[in-house]
Amino acid sequence: MIIPTLNEEKYLRKTIDNVFLSAQNPNCLEVLVVDAGSTDHTLQTIEEMNVQTFLKPEFALKKYESLNYGMAQAKADVLIFLDADSILPKGFDEMILDKLSSRGTVGGAFDLVFDLSDWRLSVILALNRIRYRLGHLFYGDQAVFCRKTVAEAIGGFPEKELMESAFFCKKLKSKGRLKLIRKPIETSARRFNENGFFKVFWFDVTMWIRFVLNLPLDTYGKKYWGWNLKPNG
After folding, report:
1. Do the Cβ atoms of 229 and 7 come closer than 8 Å?
2. Whether 186 contacts 82, CB under 8 Å
3. Residue 31 carries which DSSP code?
4. Is the distance from CB of 144 to CB of 168 less than 8 angstroms?
5. C-alpha–C-alpha distance, residues 35 and 4, integer Å
6. Rounded to whole angstroms, what are the CA distances from 73 to 4, 10, 32, 35, 221?
7. 152 and 72 in contact (C-beta within 8 Å)?
8. What CA–CA distance (Å, rounded) separates 121 from 106?
9. How far apart are CA 186 and CA 175, in angstroms?
10. Residue 109, beta-bridge partner list
11. CA distance linking residue 3 with residue 127, whole number of Å
């Protein structure tokens, strides 16, 4: 399991605690945290936990670098790419292995819910479910998983400052099917709360349209990461 971090002291310990509590076979887990130079106490909050940590400040604004580095360090056969503010469902490890046991399946991700109840977020979820259930191109907050051999065969995550997981899934689909686990992962709605619901919603829609039309995205990276680099966010 690879968790990229940058100023996640508020969420990371809870996320990792949940990983070990929710796994059917916690002793089989390998958890790697790749930190891109946090200015808060992200790594200090997990010092005594059974995880491997790597401090890589040169990966700031380049999440794909953190994901690829973690992938290279991992020894496990199955990789899970987990955001630091997301809570996996009970028995997630067995669910993943079950999906990967299907002939022709190379990876997948989880259905998604937010950690807050709000009608506006419900609209977002409904639209997102249509998008990813039809296209099977998943976002990072859905805990994309795959076999390491397949991830290596496609060259890992592409050098994209935004939507790196959707691009990664596009490459995975060239090797086989992606499956959706309907038991949802819970992710933080902080981006919407802290930066304005409609502003973030319109930004996300714009990025998806540009992704579908194969238009450049990297010029929008500074804006996105400006919302996400704040300590204790």
Report:
1. yes
2. no
3. -
4. yes
5. 6
6. 13, 26, 8, 14, 26
7. no
8. 30
9. 28
10. 180
11. 26
Name the β-bridge partners of 78.
147
N-term to C-term CA, the chain: 23
pTM of the full structure: 0.92
The beta strands (E) that lie in the chain are given as 2-5, 32-35, 52-55, 78-81, 86-87, 105-114, 144-147, 177-187
Give the C-alpha distances (Å, rounded to integers) separating 26 from 33, 77, 91, 94, 226. 16, 15, 10, 11, 35
Counted residue by residue, the chain has a size of 233
| Residue 67 near residue 37 (C-beta atoms within 8 A) | no
CA-nearest of 128, 129, 125 to 113 is: 125
Residue where the block lists tokens 């998943």: 138
- Give pLDDT tens digits along the chain (233 positions): 999 999 999 999 999 999 999 999 999 999 999 999 999 999 999 999 999 999 999 999 899 999 999 999 999 999 999 999 999 999 999 999 999 999 999 999 999 999 998 899 999 899 889 989 999 999 999 999 999 999 999 999 999 988 999 999 999 999 999 999 999 999 999 888 888 888 888 888 888 998 988 888 877 766 676 655 554 44
Q: Give the helix/strand (H/E) hosting 167.
A: helix 164-172
**Amino acid occupying residue 202:** W
Instruction: Specify the DSSP class assigned to residue 89.
Output: P
CA atoms within 13 Å, Cβ hemisphere of 73: 19
d(CA 151, CA 36) in angstroms, rounded, equals 21
Cα-Cα-Cα-Cα dihedral of 40, 8, 196, 115, to 10°?
-150
